[in-house]
Fold:
Amino acid sequence: MSKRKIDWKTILIGIARAGFVTFLAFLFSFFFLEPLSFSALSVFSAPEKRDFSITDLYAQVANNRPVHTLDQDIILVDIGHSDRVQIAEIINQVKFWQPKVVGIDILFAKETPDDSVLVSALSEAAITIIPVGLKENPSGYFEIEDKPFFYPDDKYIYAASNMPSNYDGATIREFVTEFPLKDNESILSYPMAIAKAYNPQSLEQLFQRNKKIETIDYASREFITMTKEDIMTDGSVLTDRIVLIGAISDGLDMHSSPVDSYISGLNIHAASIATILNGNYFDPAFSCPAWLPACILCFLVLLVREFSKVQMRGFITRILQFIIVYLAVRIGYSLYVDSHRIFDFSYTLLMVTFGLFAVDIWIGLEFLAKKSKNRVIRYINKCQSILLNNRT
Amino acid sequence: MKNIFRKYCVLILLCVISVLTVSANAYIIHSVNGNVKVSSGGKITSAIKGNYLKKSDLISVPEGGGIKILDESTKKIYTSVTSGNTSVENLISQSLEKAADNAGQLNSRLHFSARGEKVAVDSRVYREKGMVTRSLNLFDGGAANIEIAPDVLAQLIANTVYFDNVNGDSTLMFNPIHIDSILNTDTLAEFGFKLYNPLETPVYFNVLKFSGVNNRSAEISSLGQPGGFYILPAGQTMWRTRHDEVPYGEKHLIVACHYSFDIDSLIESLNRIINNDNLIINAPDSSLPVFIRKL
Structure:
C-alpha cells in the first residue's frame, strides 16, 4: 500500500489564502461598521441606536438572575413632587436620624422667598454633598454651569453630577472619577465625593487604578427607597448610612442604563457609589488589542474552510460561525459575572462575519483574475501568431 | 423543690423556643406580583409586602405571578423562578441554583431555552399611554395634594347663604376677615364677574347657582367651571360674562379657596344639607380662608 504524499504546496497555498482573506476582512472592519449581509450585533442590540456595548448584554443577563443584593450603605429618599419647603422638611427628617452622608440630588438654581427654611435644613449637621452641573470647554477642561444659589458656601461639598455617555440621551454605563477645571484644579464627580465622605479608604483602590472613567456595576443590586411617610414610620434605617435625596420619577432626570431603559439619575448615582464602595471594578479580559484574538479566530475558521471538501465548506463555516459566536458570548458572560472582566467579543463577531464575506470577495476576485489572465494570455498568443504570419 | 425546678426548666425551654422562633423569622416578603398565597401553620393568607416568613412556610405562586423574599441576615433578595407551590427554603435554593447557572441565564436571554420556557414573541403589554398629564403640580406644587373637604365647605356655604338670606332675597357679602378683602369683583352690565388675585399663591374658585323653591337647588352656574374649578394664579385677573340677564330668583355665588375642591361632591353635599328639613344654620365662620360673594 503506498503512503499518501502530503501535498505541502497545496497546504501552504491554503494557509496563505486564509491569511490573505483574514487580512482583507481586517481591512473591511476599518471601513464598515456593520457587515452588509448580516448584522450579527442586532441580535443583541437595536442597531439604529448605534449605542451598543457588549457589557449591556452581560449586565442585562446578570440582572435577570433571581438573587439580588439589598444594598446596606445607601438609602434613596424620593421627594416626589415636593416644593422647597417640603424638601426642607424631608431634609430635616433625614438629618434627625443622623446619616453619615447626605447627598442632595436637586439643583436649587434660583433663590425664592421660602428658602430660609431650606438653607437652615441644609446647614445642620451631617456631611452634605451638593451637585453642580459642568459644561465642557473646547480647551478640554470643564466649567461650572449649573450651581445652587448659595454656591460657593463652604459649608457644603460640591461635586459634579455629569454622567458620561456616547451621545446626548445615550446609555449611561460609566461614571467619571474627577473632572478637570481651569488652572489645574479639579472637581470630584458626585459618586466619588459621596464615597470619599462615607469611606475614604474605598477610594484608595480607585486611585491606584488611575483611570478617569469606570464601568458601573448595575447588575443584581437594589436600593431601599423611602418616602417622607416611610421616614416618619421607620427612619432608623438612615442612621450612619448614605442618604441620597432626590426624585426617582421626574421625567427631566430619567436616563437609560444597561439594565433599565428608564431609570432616575438618583439610581444611577447610587449604583456608581455602590461600585466604588464594593470595589466592583471591571477590567479588560485580555491585555492585547481586541482585534488580535478576533483575527486569530477568523484565520482559523478560514483555514478550516480552506481544507474542507468543497461541498461541505458552506455548511462547516456557518456551523463554526455559530459556535464561535455562542462560545464568545458564553465565555464573555462568565468572565463578566465571575471575574469582573470584560471580553469585548463584538470585534470577534465582526471579524468572523467579515471573514466569510471576504472569502466570497476573494473567490470572486480570484476568478476574475484567472479569467483576465487567460484573456491576456490568449490575446498575447493571438498577437504573436499574427506577427508570425506577417513575417512569413 | 422538684416542682419549682421543673417550672424553671419549662420557663427556660419556652424562652429558648421563642428566641429560636424569632431568629428563624429572618425572611421578609420584599415584593409580590399577582395573587400569591402563603400557607403557614395550616393557615392560608395572601402574601403582603413586609410580612415575615419561615423556612417551612409554603408559597403558592400563580401563573404569571411572582414573589421576592429578603433574607434579613444576608440582605439577599430571592425571586421565585417558577409558578406553583413551594416552600420558602425550596424557593431560595431554586433561586440560588438558577443564579449560578450562567449558561441557562444566557440561553434564556438568547432564546435558546431547551426546557419549554416559551417566549411569547407575540405578547404585548399596553402600558405606554403616549400622553402627558397636567396636574396642579405645575401651578401650585404646595397645594397639589390638598383638597378642601366638600362637607365642610358645603356647610359653610349653606351657613352663608341661608343665614343671610332665608327668604331668597338680599345680597350675600362675606369677607373672611383674616384674608382681608383679597379679591376684587366687578359685576358687569351683562351677567358676569371679574376677579383679580393679589395674593402670592393661586386661588381656586367656581361659581354656583341656587334656584328653585327657596333656592334649595344647588348646581354649577353657567359661568362656572363644570370640569372642576378655575385656578387663578397669583397676580392675575380672570373675566367672564354671559350676555343675558340672570333669570328671576336665581342666585349665583363665587366660592373661592386657597386649595382645590371636588365640585361634584360639593354640590351633592350642598343639596343634601340645604334640603334637610332639620337644617341647622350657624353664623358664618369668618376665620376660615374661604371667600364667598354673590354675583
In short: Chain B touches chain A through 26 residues (CB under 8 Å).
